[in-house]
Design goal:
Layout (H helix, E strand, L loop, with lengths): L1 H7 L23 E2 L7 E10 L9 E9 L3 E6 L5 H8 L7 E9 L5 E7 L5 E4 L12 H6 L9 H18 L15 H13 L5 E5 L7 H14 L4 E5 L3 H4 L5 E6 L3 E4 L5
Parallel strand pairs: 1-6, 4-9, 4-10, 7-8, 8-9
Antiparallel strand pairs: 2-3, 2-5, 5-6, 10-11
Helix pairs in contact: 1-4, 4-5, 5-6
Bound molecules: adenosine-5'-triphosphate and magnesium ion.
GO molecular function: ATP binding; ATP hydrolysis activity
Protein name: ABC transporter I family member 11 chloroplastic
Pfam families: ABC_tran (PF00005)
Amino acid sequence: MLAAAAAMAVTVPRAASHCFPANTARTCWSCRAARVEAGHSRLEVRKVTYRPPGTEQNLLNEINLSLQEKSFGLIFGRSGSGKTTLLQLLAGLSEPTSGSICIQKYDDTGNPIGLPELLTSQRVGIVFQFPERYFLADTVLEEVTFGWPRQKADLLLKEQLALNLQNAFNSVGLTTISLDENPQALSGGFKRRLALAIQLVQTPDLLLLDEPLAGLDWKARADVVNLLKDLKKHHTILVVSHDLRELYPLVDRSWRMEMGGSLKEEALPV
Ligand SMILES: Nc1ncnc2c1ncn2[C@@H]1O[C@H](COP(=O)(O)OP(=O)(O)OP(=O)(O)O)[C@@H](O)[C@H]1O
Ligand SMILES: [Mg+2]
């Protein structure tokens, strides 16, 4: 029913600023484009430095990070240290000045299999801080199908997206809401669920979340933490957050971003 409604939806192009997997192509690096397969793959960020074009100062300095698939990583650190900047690089919204962002497969004995593969922006979903501020549509259905192909020739793709949508709504527990509902009328927790579902429709290999608990009341925060616990079973999740205590039970690896853009692996100080 949900999938059928989505497949029939008339769509409008989504604004570039909306929280949707970016289509920015990564152009270089020594990796090849490919999808993360099940098994023993890791996201590997290798010596990534970032200096915005036309500026004199690095925002990120030789960042190294490794995160196994279907695990939960958390980056914490002071405001202005560069956490969101790093997420933007991982999502392909800007390009590293140097270094690489790859997926490396390993065998059971820990030896790398083949060459590292490029993590393309199409394989990454990013949910920005306060994603509900970027909702544009009047109904949940329009919000989630914004940007879907409109041509008849794309029918197969649309059907696949509709199927993904059904799965995404199931996995974030949104099946009880009406597709005609205004997204702005949803509760805080349900708005975050919707923002996550929009990303999950694209079946990303890596899900990036910037401050997923920010601005929510205690009940919605607990709700989102439980949801992330569920999503972790099937997705690789990297979160930036100041809410260390609440996310602590989910965290497999954590890093502190220090002022000046240096990342150091460190246990959560809770
Ligand atoms: N395009 C840019 N050009 C120059 N400086 C920038 C640019 N984008 C961000 N900055 C600066 O980079 C630093 C890191 O910003 P960023 O938003 O990544 O920090 P953050 O760790 O996410 O902070 P917060 O916890 O407050 O969200 C800040 O000093 C910011 O002003
Ligand atoms: Mg930030």
